[in-house]
Amino acid sequence: MTSKATPTYAQAAAPPAKGKKGRQAKGPVSASSVAVASEEVFTKSPPPLPQAVRRFFASRTTFELHPEALKIAAHFPDIAASVLREANCSLPLSFTCTVNDKASVSLLGTDLHTPASTYTPYFAHLTSRLNKAFPIGNSPWDIFKHAPNETQLLIHSIPLAFLPSDDDQLFPSLHESMRNARGVSILSARYLNPDTESR
To answer: Which domains does the chain have, with CATH numbers?
Structure first.
């Protein structure tokens, strides 16, 4: 059994030997090449956060399309930025805004590495300004909350007598119950069996 001999300093410092067909064989790695490789590793930016992690939204107790939905979507990002600036917030101030057919207002941070959770201390101020800028009477927006993930829930064993037969009424019926019972805000609901006769 033979052991591999440790190269001398002269051998390690010598230029790399020629390999087959005139190609240079790989020589010892220099300190400068290690430093460059290390710098490349540490300067890589982290991957962008998913949209669900960068989004937060405010919902209403009345689920209907807001008459000024387009106006809200166009102007609330600037209003939100103004609220944060007044509060001396050092976070990014750029957002996009959407208003769905149930009048939930969603803000999505355009900075790919800032999670919505960092804006939590400002949710109450943002909600207050939203309700002042776009008053809607007896059904104001609830305080902003983090966007739910894309998890789908399957609910069994609820007696049909307690549920509406109309699919369009299922979401309003379950939304409040789920929020009260479990603190979960759902975005949609449907029957697994669409046939009302065999359900």
So the answer is: 51-146 (3.30.70), 151-199 (no CATH)
